[in-house]
Amino acid sequence: MKLIRYGTQYQEKPGIILGEDMYDVAGFGEDYNEHFFETGGLVRLQDFVASHQGKLEKIPAESRLGGPVARPSKIVCIGLNYADHAEEMKVELPGEPILFLKSTTALSGPNDDIIIPRGSVKTDWEVELAVVMGARATYVVEAEAMDYVAGYCLHNDVSEREYQFERGGNWTKGKGCDSFAPLGPVLATKDEISDVDNLRLWLKVNGEMMQNSTTANFIFKIPFIISYVSQFMTLLPGDVISTGSPAGVGYGLHPPTFLKPGDVVELGIDNLGVAKQHVRAYTP
User: How many domains is the chain partitioned into structurally?
Assistant: First the structure.
């Protein structure tokens, strides 16, 4: 299945994609949140869709899409998980996954604007594959890690590099600004992705290809990442793990290049759809 959420921001309704069209499933009576995933919601949703075949209301194609997961308890990100990205950032390959968190208030829809924070001059782009957890995970062994996965999403790990690297402390202040976690358009369940270790992911800025890679280039694969993260914190159903970005970010260019108002960012991953985000300055 491919799950979507649509409508006004903070008031999104659940939907699903069937074929090429989007359909409303508000009659299912649940949002795609922690309770949904923890209580077998994917199976119940599948049964609901089957029992309402031919009766679901089509969603207008121009409808705004929200992130396909209702507010997760956390967004865990993996830094420097592609060797070419570590090289362009001029750092050594990590011996263990680098972990940081993005604020859940950074979540936005796949086609919502990227808002450059007040005073920012180094806002950057990073296309990433995100994993959505389907079950509570604590001290998970690597061999069983995929049993805890609900599905996958496209994610732009928008980053403010001055805040991240030049302001002291850790990376969090450069990662959690409003609009810095556009997610979606869809959450594709595991059965929709035949080989998660061989997905093409790409990102363009103003039509120019900046990132073009594949998840085959992961340093740390998804089962290891899930197991590793679960040693330090409990992952709850609906939590998001973003698995890192390949080379081609603005910070790694010569000279470094960053987003400015009026820019347009487009990105996509095989079978997870395409997102398009316009960049604008913060306004009170």
Answer: 2
